[in-house]
Amino acid sequence: MEYKLSPSILSADFCNLEEGIRQTEENGAVYLHFDVMDGVFVPSISFGMPVLASIKPAVKQVIDTHLMITEPIRYVEAFAEAGADILTVHYEACKDIRATLDKIKACGMKTGLAISPETPVEVLKEFLGEVDMFLVMTVHPGFGGQKLISETLDKVRTLRTMLNERGLETDIQVDGGIYAFNVKEALDAGANVIVAGSAVFKGNAGENTRELMEILKNYE
Ligand SMILES: O=C(CO)[C@H](O)[C@H](O)COP(=O)(O)O
Ligand SMILES: [Fe+2]
Hints:
One of its GO terms (molecular function) is metal ion binding. Helix content is 33%, strand content 20%. With 220 residues, the chain is α/β, with parallel strands linked by helices. The protein has an eight-stranded parallel β-sheet. α1 runs parallel beside α8, α2 packs parallel to α3 (76-82) and α5 packs parallel to α6. The mean pLDDT is 98.
């Protein structure tokens, strides 16, 4: 299994965004997590396509886009054009999940399907083998800097078991409240794509990335 770090720029200093991102890239983060919030699906508003389009040509990282927006199908083409590589949508936000996933694929992106903490993991059963990545939210979506809800890791364990039983090696991403001190709990539960916002961008992004990457590289 490949273990990847996806630094979330939600916690970055936007006046020094380029430098912050570069430090994560130079220290081994192959993904970059881009949180889009619409003030409807979640209470807060973050950033969208124009910011992504500016970042895209400046990095080689995989743009891992987490859409916390209602009816994301409306914006699939726009995010493909802006440079998203993976487009993750929320189970709770889509009227027609299959149509949304089909549109993401048709636009040439990898598919991600996310569940919020209150959504049971069993809803993902019918999508096993159909998406490139599942995202199990480990905090309530909407804000960075929250504390990990440990019960959500039980859902990661269940999902990894369901995938293993079918011989699938699909990526499981965890997002929210992950730091160097608890990342191993998420890995042990079966996650292999680790989002970290505050843990990377609060303080020295380069050093923080190195510390997390060391843990991921040495994990077995
Ligand atoms: O999707 C998100 C919030 O909804 C963010 O990706 C997540 O919260 C990362 O921030 P932190 O690592 O600080 O918890
Ligand atoms: Fe996120």
